[in-house]
Amino acid sequence: MDSTNYSDAQQLRANFGDEAGLEAANRADKSRALGNHLHYVKWRQVERLCVLLSIEQTIGTVH
After folding, report:
1. 49 in any annotated domain
2. Residue 31 is assigned to a structural domain of this protein
3. How far apart, in whole angstroms, are the C-alpha atoms of residue 58 and residue 60?
4. Which pTM value belongs to this model?
5. pLDDT at 11 over 70
6. What is the DSSP track for 19-63?
7. Is residue 59 part of a domain?
8. Number of domains present in the structure of the chain
9. Which residues contact residue 24 at a Cβ distance below 8 angstroms, ignoring those fewer than 6 apart?
């Protein structure tokens, strides 16, 4: 995962609010349907990041 994914997740959250993860999942599904496995993986990562960014609590170990 790179900083581009973070930027995409932030942009989706700004545009779609709580539905950002769903939008990323839709984009991943569209990419898979088009046979673009690289974009599929990217949007799945963005989807997971959107979910993590929406959680108010810390999850796991913080260093």
Report:
1. yes
2. yes
3. 7
4. 0.85
5. yes
6. GHHHHHHHHHHHHHHTT-HHHHHHHHHHHHHHHHHH--S--S---
7. no
8. 1
9. 8, 9, 12, 43, 44, 46, 47, 50
Tokens, residue 5:
């994914």
Contact 54, 13 (CB under 8 A): yes
CA atoms within 13 A on the CB side of 18: 2
The pLDDT tens digits for 23-50 are 999 999 999 999 999 999 999 999 999 9
Domain assignment of residue 32, given as a range? 3-54
Neighbours of 13 (CB within 10 A): 19
> Has residue 62 been placed in a domain?
no
Around 56, how many Cα atoms within 13 Å sit in the side-chain half-sphere? 1
Q: Would you give the DSSP letter of residue 15?
A: H
